Amino acid sequence: MTHYFLSGIGGSGMLPLALILKGQGHQVSGSDRSRDQGRTPEKFAKLEADGFCLFPQDGSGLMGEQADVTSPVCMTGEFNRPDFMVVSAAIEDTVPDVVAAKAAGIPIIKRAELLAQVFNTFDRRIAVGGTSGKTTTTGMIGFIAERAGLDPVVMCGGVMKNFGTTALTGKGKIFITESDESDGSIALYNPEIAVLNNVSVDHKELHELRTLFGDFVSKARVSIINRDNAEALALAGDNTQTFSVGDAKDIQYKANGIAATIDGHRLELSLPGIHNLSNALAAIAAASALGISVA
Q1: Is residue 59 a contact partner of residue 83, using CB atoms and an 8 Å limit?
Q2: Exposed, middle or buried, 255 (CB in 10 Å: 0-12/13-18/19+)?
Q3: What is the pLDDT of residues 93-103, one digit of tens each?
Q4: Does the predicted TM-score (pTM) go above 0.70?
Q5: Residue 134 has pLDDT above 80, yes or no
Q6: Buried-most residue among 2, 30, 99, 106 (CB within 10 A)?
Q7: Can you state the angle between helices 14-23 and 111-120, rounded to 10 degrees?
Q8: How confident is the model over 22-66, as pLDDT tens digits?
Q9: Category of 226 on φ-ψ map: left (φ > 0), alpha (ψ -120 to 50) or beta
Q10: Beta partners for 153?
């Protein structure tokens, strides 16, 4: 068991990672300036109720046996010195947690690096990339896999309404995650199945995106690519399977959703818009590559 201390544990990227690490049997503690400022107290109360040991973001959580362990959660067992401190890419060197970790000689690892390390250890690995639609598609694939009884681990950039959380901590052999191109961390993932929704200029220039996404899909056993997006389709290779809203029949737009027929099966989405039909087709294609039937 490894002890990870997450600085900014309540953040949108850190929180699901914390849940996944704990679900994998590791010890997880952390701090967050939002907690210190009294913001979203219900979120941090839930973390403590789930067994996470939380500290002020003043460096005290990096002190091991010398830490002022006053939280009831922290006092339920021996609080040992963290093996690693995990930070986001944007954290400043002046943050007290960083200063304390360096003084104590505790290795500091970036959140994206650790997430990719954990992801790459799984037998079955689905990563979702693209300029837009990553979170929705990741949640859809996770929902399909969970309903198919595969008990997946899922890392999602937003709250999955079906589960009320940003992460699933299943015990199966499948890890499903969205992968981010904005910080270049997509290059760290080694997916078995790579989903590419679309490619357009956002965080990086187009030539950079072509390289990042091209490497991403080329190293997968199967790449799932949207052929409605020319830039994405240009990255297709021998391992590629494509999807298109043109594959859908009898599309019906509804006030609160969209419906279509896919391979003879009627699909009813409670999410509106042709873009969400495209996301659903990506998810169905990824699940099919995983061995789940379209039906």
Answers
A1: no
A2: exposed
A3: 889 999 999 99
A4: yes
A5: yes
A6: 30
A7: 40
A8: 999 999 999 999 999 999 999 999 999 998 999 999 998 887 654
A9: beta
A10: 169, 175
Distance (Å) of CA 232 to CA 129, 177, 195, 278: 10, 19, 10, 14
pLDDT of 73 reads 59
The mean of the pLDDT values for the chain is: 92
Of 7, 171, 169, nearest in space to 88 by CA = 7
Residue 102 near residue 108 (C-beta atoms within 8 A):
yes
Ramachandran assignment for 238, one of left (phi > 0), alpha (psi -120 to 50 degrees), beta (any other): alpha
Give the span between the Cα atoms of 169 and 23, in whole angstroms: 5
Residue 72 pLDDT grade (very low, low, confident, very high; cuts 50, 70, 90): low
Binned at pLDDT 50, 70 and 90, residue 71 comes out as low
3-state SS, one letter per residue, for the chain: CCEEEEECCCCCCHHHHHHHHHHCCCEEEEECHHHHCCCCHHHHHHHHHCCCEEECCCCHHHCHHHCCCCCCCHHHCCCCCCCEEEECCCCCCCCHHHHHHHHHCCCEEEHHHHHHHHHHCCCEEEEEECCCCHHHHHHHHHHHHHHCCCCCEEEEEEEECCCCEEEEECCCCEEEEECCCCCCHHHHCCCCEEEECCCCCCCCCHHHHHHHHHHHHHCCCEEEEECCCHHHHCCCCCCEEEECHHHCEEEEEECCEEEEEECCEEEEECCCCHHHHHHHHHHHHHHHHHCCCCC
User: What span, in angstroms and rounded, lies between the C-alpha atoms of 255 and 272?
Assistant: 7
Q: How far apart are CA 262 and CA 268, in angstroms?
A: 10
Whose structure tokens read 């297709």?
A: 236
**Tokens at residue 208, please?**
């950079």
